[in-house]
């Protein structure tokens, strides 16, 4: 992973949970009905946003390399959940204006599909969660 190799999570109060990612602090909270203040996205919303913004980064890079304007381009993400509430699917629609060259439309799909967040999920990495006593 480029950037921070370690992310440190702290608890500033209530249901807020912050993550120190390199020089940046990523803040999360829960919605009011879940005991939070709704002062920041939930961790799951942040996860979902990471997928969409990653795809968007690939789209903007593609356009910049070809001097194509990004005005009017949007990535719209829709999540689908199974009956058990688990994430079952993700749709990413790259909306382009009618003026966007048709010859590049399929290429946008291919490049957005290279998103590193998507690839990491598809690789199904192993997780290890444990308690570690600090001195």
Biggest β-sheet: strands ordered side by side in the sheet: 1-2-3
- State the separation between the terminal residues, measured CA to CA: 28 Å
Work out the radius of gyration: 18 Å
**What is the number of helices?**
3
Order of helices and strands: EEEHEEHH
CATH top level label of the largest domain: Alpha Beta
Give the tally of β-strands: 5
Low-pLDDT residue intervals, each spanning 5 or more residues: none
CATH architecture of the largest domain: 2-Layer Sandwich
Structural class: alpha+beta
Q: Domains counted in the coordinates: how many?
A: 2
Helix content: 25-40%
Coarse shape: elongated
Largest sheet: 3 strands, antiparallel
CATH level 3 topology of the largest domain: GMP Synthetase, Chain A, domain 3
Q: Tell me the CATH superfamily of the largest domain.
A: K homology (KH) domain
Beta-strand content bin: 25-35%
Mean pLDDT: 95
Please give a structural write-up:
The protein is α+β, with helices and mostly antiparallel strands and 135 residues long. The chain has 2 domains: 1-40; 43-135, GMP Synthetase, Chain A, domain 3, CATH 3.30.300.20. 28% of the residues lie in helices and 26% in strands. It has helices at residues 43-65, 105-112, 116-122, and strands at 7-13, 16-21, 24-28, 74-81, 87-95. The strands form 2 sheets. A 3-stranded antiparallel sheet has the order 1-2-3, with no helix packed on it. The longest helix is centred in the middle third of the chain and has 23 residues, at 43-65. The model has no long low-confidence stretch (mean pLDDT 95).
């Amino acid at each position: 992973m480029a950037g921070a190799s370690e992310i440190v999570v702290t608890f500033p109060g209530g249901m807020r949970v912050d993550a120190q990612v390199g020089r940046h602090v990523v803040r999360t909270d829960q919605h009011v009905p879940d005991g939070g203040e709704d002062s920041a996205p939930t961790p799951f919303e942040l996860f979902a946003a990471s997928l969409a913004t990653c795809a968007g980064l690939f789209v903007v890079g593609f356009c910049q390399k070809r001097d194509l304007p990004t005005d009017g381009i949007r990535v719209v993400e829709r999540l689908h959940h199974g009956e058990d509430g688990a994430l079952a699917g993700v749709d990413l629609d790259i909306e382009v204006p009618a003026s966007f060259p048709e010859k590049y439309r399929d290429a946008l799909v291919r490049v957005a599909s290279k998103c590193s967040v998507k690839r990491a999920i598809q690789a199904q990495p192993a997780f290890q969660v444990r308690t570690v006593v600090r001195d």
